[in-house]
Structures are given as C-alpha cells and as structure tokens.
Amino acid sequence: MAPSPADASLRYVIVDVFTRERFKGNQLAIVEMPLEGSLDNESKQRIAREFNLSETVFLHPQTSEASQRAIDIFTTTQELPFAGHPTIGTLVYLSWGADSVGQGATQSFTLQTKAGLINAELHVPTGVAEASIPHNVRIHRKPVPWQSILNGQPSLKSVGDGPSSSCPLVSIVKGMTFVLVNVLSVEELAALSVGGPRLDLIDWDQGWESFTAPYFYAIVSENRETRHISVRVRMIEPGCGEDPATGSAASALSAYLALQRGTAGSTYSFSIGQGIEMGRHSEIGVKVTLNNRGDGVSDVVLSGSGVLVSEGRLYL
Predict the structure, then answer these.
(1) What is the pLDDT of residues 220-249, one digit of tens each?
(2) Which carries the bigger pLDDT value, residue 193 or residue 228?
(3) Directed axis angle between helix 84-95 and helix 247-261, to 10°?
(4) pLDDT tier, 86 (very low <50, low <70, confident <90, very high otherwise)
(5) Higher per-residue pLDDT: 116 or 283
(6) Pair 29, 19: CB distance under 8 Å
(7) Sign of CA pseudo-dihedral 69, 75, 79, 82
(8) 136 with 148: CB under 8 angstroms?
(9) Which residues contact 298 (CB under 8 A, 6 or more apart)?
(10) Nearest-angstrom CA–CA distance, 18 and 276
C-alpha cells in the first residue's frame, strides 16, 4: 500500500561507520526525531527491529545549543547507554549539515547519551571524528573461565594455558561489558566460528550485570617508544552473529591493554582493524590516557570516519 499525504513520516539515513568506503565498516541507521511530539521507547524498538542493524540512533531535534544534540541508541532488542559506532556515525552525519556551528579546520559537537555527555570534534580536512567518550572502566573481580569460551570456539583449544586459564571481564561503562580473549595470531583469529552457544559462567561484580559479548583480539605490532599498538579483532556474539565494528569493545580493550602496561600519566594509541573476515573492513582509532598513578583511566578518545549510503522517509 502506497503512503498517503496524511501518513506521518521521519527522515532517516544509513551511514557506514569506521570506513571511508561504501559497503564497508558498520552500518548505522539514524532517524531524525519529530520537532513536535515524540516517539515512545516501544516505537523506537519497533523501528530498530525494522532496520535490523546492530544499532539504530534516534536523533533529537536541535535546541538553542546548535552544536549539542541528544541521541537514543537501540539494538534490535534493547536500548544501550552508549555505543561507539553510533557515536562516531552521528557525529559524521551532523558535520555534513553543520553550517551553524561554523567552518574551519575543526567542528565541535556535544552528544547527550544515557551514559553522559560526549564532547567531540570533527577534523574537516580528514573527515575523522574524535569523541571523548564516557567511561567507568571496571575490570571485574572474577574473569571468565576458559572453558566458557571453548564451548563456542573449540578451535581455540591450543591457545592459553588450557581449561584452567581465564579471560578478563571488562566494562567500559555500566551496561557495556566484554570478555577479552587474546588469541595467538591473526590466523587463529580467522579460524573462529560464527555462532555457537551463548556465554555462560559470567560473574559480574555486584550491580554491574549487563550486555556482555566476547571480543577476540591478536596484537599485530607494538612500538614501546611511541606507545602505539596495532590490533586485529573480531566481535562474535553467540546466538546473534558477528559485528563488523564495535567502538565500545575497542575502547574497553584499549583501556585494559593500557592499564596492563601501566605507565603513569601516559597516553597509548591503538589502531584496531575489525570486520575483515566478513568483508566489511573497519578501522577504529582509540587513545587512552592513564592517571598520574597509572592504575586508572583519565581519558578515552574514540575516532573514526563514515560515509553516507542511503537516505529516505520512514512512514509511521
């Protein structure tokens, strides 16, 4: 049935994030919220299921602060307090119509998320957005037993010290938690299977129960003088599939690796490649600055680019 003039509709765009090339990176739907009225969470959840992407952003109308916008982030099943590729994708999208913010080498924005305010800049010459993301890094007391990982990835039996070893459970903020699984090589990473049973034996710290997924990584190179680390990763969520780019997981991994090195007051930079095995190559940048004791994170900056793929009207 064709839409009628009386049907309410909203503008939407599809952006590929953490890439400069269409049909690579991670897809993101951005829905512009109406100037009058609003959508309830049930409606937002239905729309996110309709798009059937890893995340959909609902962008609230501009207020008196031209450079500040509120966003809501939904997966196909739930709302998230924060996620990386929706943040970067929204910033890139806002920059395309940012005349009121002013032109120049950089454009400044602030996003209001459920996890807090995100201050960001977009570098106009490169098209790269950098966002100082909310963080409350927590390495949970009880790591995840190796056997829980092996249940879904039997090819990893040769990795680590065997069934008695374990993998750290790390949250970047409350509500976003990842099991960090260090594999021995890029070849081991490529051999992982998509699917399998959901993780069990997850024991979060009290009050930190949340979305949790395994994030597999192999360190490709490390320059100890410049503190730059290149990493290849895969995020395979049992029962759901593989994600081509996961900014929140990349931030959690980067924070964890920086803390393991522990040089007080130092900044570590990370180049993270994801989605390569599934044909959606993504490039994620993260910078982590440690506090003056080297035992905590003072700043996490997530960076990446994006490209417009499609746009249209969503009829309600």
Answers:
(1) 999 999 999 999 999 998 777 899 999 999
(2) 228
(3) 120
(4) very high
(5) 283
(6) no
(7) negative
(8) no
(9) 289, 290, 291
(10) 12
Which two tokens mark 196? 């399998």
Could you please report the per-residue DSSP string of the chain?
A: -PPPTTS-EEEEEEEEES-SSTTSSEEEEEEEPPSSS---HHHHHHHHHHHTSS-EEEEPPP-SSTTEEEEEEE-SS-EES--HHHHHHHHHHHHTT-GGG--SSEEEEEEEETTEEEEEEEETTTTEEEEE-----EE-SSPEEHHHHHTT-GGGGGSTT-TT-EE-EEEEETTEEEEEEE-S-HHHHHTPPS--PPP----PPTT---EEEEEEEEEEEEETTTTEEEEEEEEEETTTEEES--HHHHHHHHHHHHHHH--TT-EEEEEEEESTTTT--EEEEEEEEE-TTSSSEEEEEEEE-EEEEEEEEEE-
Measured distance CA(316)–CA(313) in Å, rounded: 10
Average pLDDT of the residues in 81-97: 92
Tokens of 68: 């500040």
At 4 the pLDDT is 59
Q: Give the per-residue pLDDT at 161.
A: 46
Distance separating alpha carbons of residues 250 and 229, to the nearest angstrom: 12
What percentage of the chain has pLDDT greater than the value 90? 73
- Joined tokens for residue 223: 């320059």
C-alpha span between 39 and 37 (Å, rounded):
7
Q: Find tokens 């049907």 and name the residue.
A: 7
Residue type, position 24, single letter: K
Sequence-ordered list of residues with C-beta below 8 angstroms from that of 300, at least 6 positions apart, any chain:
132, 133, 135, 137, 172, 251, 254, 255, 286, 287, 288, 289
Mean of all residue pLDDT scores within the chain: 90
